[in-house]
Please model this.
Amino acid sequence: MRRGRIPDFEQVTLADGRMFLMQPVLRGMCKYESIKDGTLDLADFALMNDAIAVETENAWRAREAFEKTRGQ
Model:
């Protein structure tokens, strides 16, 4: 996936890779209790994080395409 760099922007994240688990919770894809009670496994979290990354990338690409057509 292609990612643009934003000058003077440093992303903040949780320590120890916990953002991998919390990102789907923050996006409403699952509940925090599903982490605690073992309802979901790492494969579930991997798939949800992949889906989030694809959605983010597609939004970025759409925004870039829109900006290009707007500038013409």
